Amino acid sequence: MASYSVGFWNLENLFDIAQSPRRSDKLERTLRSELAGWTQAVLDLKLSKLASVITRMNGGLGPDLLGVCEVENRFVLEGLRDVINGIVPGRRYEIVHADARDGRGIDVAFLYDPSVFTPIATFFHFIVKRSATRDIVQVNFQTSSGRLFVVVGNHWPSRSGGQYESEPFRLIAGETLGYFHERIREVHGPNTAVLAMGDFNDEPPDRSLAVHARSMRQRPKVTLAQSAAFLNLMWPIVGSGIGTHYFSNFANVLLASRSLLTGAGGLEVQTDTVEVVRFADMMGTGVYPGPIRFGRGGDMNADGFSDHFPIAVRILED
């Protein structure tokens, strides 16, 4: 039986350097204040800090598959990959990425170990919104034994401007995720293993997740559902004081399809392995010790990492 470590992390504004030739003039103007002081030295430090966390995950082996968001382009992802590959023996991560339409130029992507997973198809699902936002990124992976594992990365519209004022955009995102979950089942069969994860900018009880994405709390309701439904794997830590992002507490959420719960497709999520990854040097102080953010070039904290903690879960294949 094979065991896979899968995770997700919002990397907090992993931008290319200021005045990068890989950035359009329009985007350079949009990000001008955020890029102040963002030099190659600062970027290199940011990459080393992120890599120091990723390489400690999964017992020091690094995850087999890691979804990420708030990355500007493939160049910074390649830099992160190369640092990680230089630290963890035997890992040679590869990348799934494409530029999204987001107004700040930040994308959703995946780092994966090609000896474990092979991407066989990638889809970028556009969320209809007045101003451009991140696509939902679906990657159909094949395990080393040939089974289909569909992973869907999300970074939904933020609560900027107010939680309820911005909620309709996340409802649309939830509907988009729910629609494509149903389509995956129609195309590949109801036993297809699907894991949706990401920064949803909403919490487990919110309508975008609970109603529109059909992300439920009760395992029996998911296993008995006649149509596409997810089990929200983050429910057990609601109210525990542990979160992934401490402005609105939960932001990163893991969702599992019915097949992943039952193992009907040969892959089964281990619900009791869900964790918010919080190494001691990543945590602040206080009653609820949140993540130590790295910040931006002008207010960079060399002791920081990201304003989010990663999440991780283990999946077994029979």
Give a verbal description of the structure.
By secondary structure, the protein is α+β, with helices and mostly antiparallel strands. It has one domain (2-317): 4-Layer Sandwich (Deoxyribonuclease I, Chain A), CATH 3.60.10. It contains eight helices and 13 strands. It has helices at 25-30, 40-54, 57-60, 74-87, 163-188, 207-212, 219-224, 258-262; strands spanning 2-14, 65-71, 94-96, 107-112, 117-125, 136-143, 148-155, 193-199, 215-216, 230-232, 252-257, 267-276, 311-317. The strands form two sheets. Strands 5-6-7-8-11-10-9 form a seven-stranded mixed sheet. The protein is globular and about 55 Å long.
**End-to-end separation:** 5 Å
Helix percent band: 25-40%
Instruction: Give me the strand/helix succession.
Output: EHHHEHEEEEEHEHEHEEHEE
Q: Could you say what the CATH topology is called?
A: Deoxyribonuclease I, Chain A
Quote the average pLDDT: 94
